[in-house]
Amino acid sequence: MPDAADDQQLNLPSLVVILVISGLIIRYFFFSSSSTQSPRSGRAAAAGSDPAALMRAREAAAERIQQMFPQVDRRTALWDLQRTGGNVAATTERILAGRLETPPITFQPPPPPGGGNAGANVTTPQSKPATPSPSHPDLITRYNLKDKLNAPLDEPEGSGKTSGKGWSTNREERQSLLQRRRDQMILEARRKMEAKIAAEKAAGQS
């Protein structure tokens, strides 16, 4: 009998300790999980009640999808996210399976946030070419023919004379002759262009 009483005295404290530990474990797992889920559900409810927050969440999800699948455009991603309730995993599975549907023409999502700034940034460089860019000098300036432009056009030396006797054996004479012919061709082209411009102006005024 004394042994039975001693066993009962020993078992009662151990049972109490086991019950306390079990209660703490149950409270930790169940109540902590419910407490962590409640803020998420609260945020989800808030997003569902706020259209702007819901659209921002879908924009973020569409951006994530485009980062993973660059071939998917924003409109298609937003359309599928709207159908799946913003479930990125479901949309990803459809893309991998090739079951992503094309959105209807009536579905026109709002422009992405910051789209106006992006458009301004794109159009700004288009106005920059108004500043004149440095151009290469024309042939008249390059070969210093401004003084010869208003002078009468002379026949280059050797144009008729050298044809009968062929090219000169002197290298300097050949180079000088080629240079004169080059200058003559440049001046003739410039005069023809100026005459054409003058004729067009006269025709426009008449």
From TrEMBL:
Q: Which InterPro entries match?
A: CUE, UBA-like_sf
Where are the bilayer-spanning segments? 12-30
**According to the lineage, what is the superkingdom?**
Eukaryota
Looking at the record, which segments are called Disordered? 100-184
How does it sit in the bilayer? Single-pass membrane protein
Q: Where is the composition biased (Low complexity)?
A: 159-169
The record's keywords, sorted A to Z, are: Endoplasmic reticulum, Membrane, Transmembrane, Transmembrane helix, Ubl conjugation pathway
Q: Pinpoint the CUE domain residues.
A: 57-100
A single GO cellular-component term on record = endoplasmic reticulum membrane
Assigned protein family: Belongs to the CUE1 family.
Protein's name in the database = Coupling of ubiquitin conjugation to ER degradation protein 1
